[in-house]
């Protein structure tokens, strides 16, 4: 398949499932098709369940924000195939570095849904223990986590763990089209490329960076950025869960086998607002929204499952019941989250004791106890000699 960017240039894009839910063949797609064909009916039903539950999570979280229970929320609506398809290609030992919108990825990784909203309620900085799910916490500093991913992947490499396409360890980082303009993302690719780091750069091109269209970020298709850094790079239809799965699986296998980093551009659309603070009617047309409504990734997989006799009323009812339980859990769980003591800000900053953090903590504790805090320069002095 080809799609066009703002200048109507045809861009080669891997597609295995068309918007009507038919399995399709395109030139050069055979290897990917075989990967998708290896998915069982239960795998496809699992993907569908996770995509529907991700959308339900979005709706529940948006309602909680409207009720004043969350400070902010960033919905993933429209990006469920890109997120769930790529996450299905991960193995437990792989490590994820998400931005703030990867609710579908974290759903597949098994991160508790209430924990996913701690960050948006402001009840703590992270939300979950990364080592429990091999998934770092949400990052809102655009692109910063791409560097963390490359650094982590270089650590994995030094441990000798990218040694086999199945048993090795790969790292994946998710970011948006706007993030490709950030220095951090570009620097992360430089380091990953020259070090052959086992990391997959997974771009969700949802066509908008808040109110900035992709045409304001690039003159060339974004997958070609990856090529420029020497990475095997591919553009996939991001609303096609099969294509996303197959492309990500291939890239992860390369990384696990020690063959270095890759770049995937999943071309998709942010169907909702950027966040609950945003009003997209100010900068985009309802025509465009309607056009992408017809490419809804969940409808597409539903059509495939129906055609293959794998979607019936009982299964739909089971997912609906699981969604209702998820909603109830979020409504009570989120309201019960407390803010934690402000001093907990200093916890978990470093794995080992750190002089500067210890001094800052002591300063804050004195301040909190109503004692006159030591002047700032004393902190700098007392931090000398601490771990750096
Ligand atoms: C370093 C940095 N600069 C600016 C911002 C403000 N900001 C938050 S989201 C956003 C747009 C990001 O767009 P994109 O990378 O396309 O991801 P999307 O939100 O569409 O998933 C910006 C500029 C930020 N969080 N961090």
Explain this structure to me?
Helices cover 46% and strands 10% of the residues. With 388 residues, the protein is an alpha/beta fold. The chain folds into two domains: 2-336, Thiamin diphosphate (ThDP)-binding fold, Pyr/PP domains (Rossmann fold); 342-383, no CATH class. A five-stranded parallel beta sheet has the order 3-4-5-9-8, sandwiched between helices. The protein has a two-stranded antiparallel ribbon with strand order 1-2. Strands 6-7 form a two-stranded antiparallel ribbon. The longest helix has 26 residues, at 41-66. Bound molecules: thiamine diphosphate (TPP).
Largest sheet: 5 strands, parallel
CATH superfamily of the largest domain: Thiamin diphosphate (ThDP)-binding fold, Pyr/PP domains
| SSE run | EEHHHEHHHHEHEEEHEHEHHHHH
Rg for CA atoms: 22 Å
- Alpha-carbon distance between the two ends: 51 Å
Helix content: 40-55%
Which architecture of the largest domain does the CATH hierarchy give at level 2?
3-Layer(aba) Sandwich
**Number of contiguous helices:** 15
Here the CATH topology of the largest domain equals: Rossmann fold
Unreliable spans: 4-8, 383-388
Secondary structure tally: strands: 9
Number of domains: 2
Question: Which ligands does the model contain, each kind named once?
Answer: thiamine diphosphate
Per CATH, the class of the largest domain reads Alpha Beta
Mean pLDDT over the full residue set: 93
Give the amount of beta strand, in percent. 5-15%
Q: Decide which structural class fits the backbone.
A: alpha/beta
Strand order of the largest sheet: 3-4-5-9-8
Shape: globular
